[in-house]
Amino acid sequence: MKVYKSNSVEETLEILKSAPKSKIISGGTDLIIELRNHNSDVDYLVDISSIEELKKIEKVNDEYIIGSAVPFSDILNFKFPDNLKGFVNALNQIGSPQIRNRGTIGGNLANASTSADSAPVLLALDAKVGISTGDFEKEVSMTDFYDFIGEGLYHGIITYIKFKEIPLNSYLSFEKLGYRKSLAISKLSISTNITLNENFEIEKIFVASGAIGKYPMREYEVESKIISQPLNENIIQLSIETMKEIISERLKGRSSLNYKLSAIEYVLRSCLEESIQYFKRC
Amino acid sequence: MELKHIGNSIDRIDSLAKVTGKAMYPQDYYVDNMLYGKTLRSIYPFAKINIDTREAQNLPGVIRIFTHNDVPNNAHGVLHKDQLVFCKDIVRRIGDPIAFVVAETEKICEEAIEKIKVQYEIMKPVLDPIEAMKEDSIKIHGDSNIVYHFKLRKGDALRALEESYFVATNTYKTHSIDHAFLQPEAGIGYLDENGNIAVIVATQYPHYDREEIAYCLNLPIENIRIINSNVGGAFGGREDITLQVHLALAAKTLNRVIKCVYSREESFLAHSKRHAMIMNYSTGVDKEGYLTAVKAEIIGDTGAYASWADNVLRKAGVHATGPYIVPNVMVDSYAVYTNNPYAGAMRGFGATQVAVAYEQQMDILARELKMSPVEIRLKNILKVGSITSTGQLLNNSVPLENCLRSVTE
Amino acid sequence: MINLKINVNNTDYEIEIDEEKRLIDLLRDELRLTGVKEGCSEGECGACSVILDGKLVNSCLIMAFQVNDSKVVTIEGLSEGDNINYIQKAFIEAGAVQCGYCTPGMILAAKAILDKNPNPSREEIRMGISGNLCRCTGYEKIVEAIELAGGYLNGTKTYRE
Description:
Chain C: Residues 2-78 form the 2Fe-2S ferredoxin-type domain. The structure holds three protein chains of three kinds. Chain A is α+β, with helices and mostly antiparallel strands. Helices cover 38% and strands 24% of the residues of chain A. Chain C is globular. The B-C interface holds B 9, 11-12, 14-25, 27-28, 30, 179-184, 230-235, 263-264 and C 28-29, 32-42, 45, 47, 74-76, 78-79, 82, 84, 88, 91-93, 95, 97-104, 107, 133-136.
């Protein structure tokens, strides 16, 4: 196996193009396990963890722009406003301190795991993902991201993730269920991003899920059922019932179905109730 | 009188070495020109096998591949010598050792393992201990799968149950558990300056390991040294042999230093587990909440090998009525072979599992009698002067009541 | 083979190492810093924790070639001879050491906590050691040891005679 510590995106893309069995490594917290289990056919590892342009995190006007090779702990050191608490919560629950110090937001998306903890919040924020290959540069919406990359991102790299700040009458929340507090792979996760109008009705809503489908995804059916409704207990019930129907359909015949049906009650309720608490404080 | 130690906290003698990282565990020993060893293990729970090591043996860097042919007495085990150093005709569990490759590097060991051809003729495994107990079940060893049967009788439990005000009858199941000690098994084998076989290993029983190696290799016990390094947790999981005989055999045959380190995954495959148990309980009580009788049948799944099964199931049987006064007792506990991972010692040694059953029985009885769970326990707990289910008169120091009262205050 | 420059425990090294080796292999097999323990090889147990450029990391989940030009602190870097640092003292005094296999990683996790905040809450300590497994202690005495070490650091506790 060849290895190389790359200094620029350009150089990285050239290697990816010329070496068909090459693979990007940054945090390496998943990839190294795969390599050691011989589950990955790789003959060239290219490290992007020192490429300066991928390691920046900044706020430009109303947009947060996060380089793909920024480790979670560096993102968590950045100050986010109170109504983006779901983003902070999601990142704080990834792995362990050691994993958060190495694992990167780009890697979390690139390996296309349905349990990726940063994905539901990024979906709910309608984030955009910058992708470069030797042939093109493209900005893909999170909602299209998984279809775009298919099983994984080959011969290209994620360069940045960006999302807009949300107004004060909006709140992003995140909840996950794992078997324990730390180092827990999500068994089910939900993120909601709700905007209320002056009558406390839902003006805009994003609901995204993790670990109940092939990829993390937007739950449009729930969104369409509760938009324009007042955010109250009835709507929480309706959302849960709708999600249960979706899960029953999606996980039909799976042994995890019953577990996830009862898990969704807690996870979704907790997101919506946390949002209500925020709006009450405002 | 001033006491030097009693009543004072004393630093562990090895804590300085441990906080500085100087404490040595077997994987921490490095010797120039040492060889590495790796074990080929069964991937099926029950199969006839045929091994061909020729291609692997020819791989550059492979020094020697050891199999059953190399072991003079191919049998070990703490109570029953039912384990093989290397399986010969049959594998009885996933993870059963088949061969030990010694090579110049760990990587070559892995390549050689890939090249050893094992033909498996797969047999239907027996995975349910209740099935395994039946007369017509396939036998894992010998002519019965029941390794051990412990009987405890006091009074007339059947009659007392019949005459009880209420009887709770329930089945409880506990599962198999791994110790998951933090330091995976590792060891170093070599010949010392006197030509004795030395094995550096983290073990709970250096003296047993010594006996087992001497027996398996057919050598006088004086020729074997076990050097116990620091032990990175054990909890019962290092009471059986894992790599000790493999390393001793390789050192003796090759007169080289051989190191072997298990991965976490191999560690899970290699050592024993806590016995999974099925516990059928009938517990009787009178109107006032005093226990009248316990009838219990406890079936412990010892997997493919007995290890400490007799002791574990005896202990489960002895503790089957918990810390309670029970005038009539009938307990039958069994250790049963299956093709599951083998079970042995783990913290509590069988006393832990039965608590799941007898304590839930108490709660169920309390609910039936509309009594608090504490009250029913206070009525029945052992005190000074009580006689246990095994007939022991407790003549001093039974502070259970103090304990229960102080936690409920 | 590749060539690496690395500073470990304040000593500069130039090392030739196999491309497939990880940081833990470099530290243990090449530099014989065997205080770095391997427990699971997949980032679950934290026994291999070291401090890389100021951050606590699992050395089993980093390839050696990635750490070129980096600075690493292992447990061996915290003491000189029997002259141990305040966290190591606290671990001994609080009885936080049993089998010892988690201890080096746990002490480095404690260092990462206390370097950030000399007065951590019990919850912050629990979070800070949540990537380190211990199978002996039940964690209680480890948390106490880190509180005690915090006390040494912020002056509310003094070393035992």
